[in-house]
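Sharing a chain and its predicted structure for anyone who wants a worked example. Both blocks are below, sequence first, tokens second.
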Amino acid sequence: MAADVRISVVIPTYNRAHLLRGCLESALGQTRPADGVVLVDDGSTDDTDAVAAEYGDRIVYIRQENAGPGAARNNGAAHASGDFIAFLDSDDSWAPWTLEYVAAAISEHNPRLLLLTPDILADPSDWRCDDKQPLVARGYPDFLAAAKHGLYCGSNVMVVHRERMLEVGGFHPSLKCAEDQVLVLRMGVDPGFCQIVSPPLVGVLRHEVSLMESCDGIVGGLNYLIDAEQKGEFPGGAERRSDRRDYLTFLMRGLTHRLIKQGHPREARRLYRRVFGWNLQRLRFRYLLGLPLLSILPVKRK
């Protein structure tokens, strides 16, 4: 089955022309070739179009008016032909055997959602993937069964069943943060989830210009998730409520700490109060006592 499954690559980009070649080369240089590479330019104002033109018909280049990362990924998925979509951010890169391992994991575990393990980089040149390590993939009944243990599933390490993704509405098109979390929670109880535990297959670049560093984006995304959970919009019902909230409180803890480090303690405390009861039920006393204290301490800026 590994040879039969079709896997397309979707790369959303916005003003990353200086990093785009490395990303495209990694997607096109796979030991198991992609079934199409779709580059979605989300209204870039740099030389993204010129870089894309260098690759000719080796990629499908789509330019859209600036609409955000979720809309760009949805647009790319709509134009892709694969059974699965492997998403790659335009400032990241893959190991040469990434799609080979993804196909093998799909064949073994038959997931609807699959997660890669990243290697976090300070510089693209830090990415070392010359030594091909054995594949270790772990299957779960569904995403929530894995995520309740504190497993993060972001779009830059995600492979998703294309038809199912489109059925549930894809990424939230207007959120600047947590648009990917809306998708994984909508697919949270779909049968079949797989995590490629090792080796790391994605070189993820950490840099100053990042959507995740936007206070408004973080606050808006997290408030949307809380509202949607309280309204019962995510599948699984009361039976899986505890699993969903395990995952949501895991996300909240990390991102409220990030808001404080960025100098937004008031916004962090507001989110903290919204999910106070969820954390109390989980006996997260270290967080419940520590975040208010952390939020009133001076922030050391580098």
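Comments welcome. The two ends are 50 Å apart (CA to CA).
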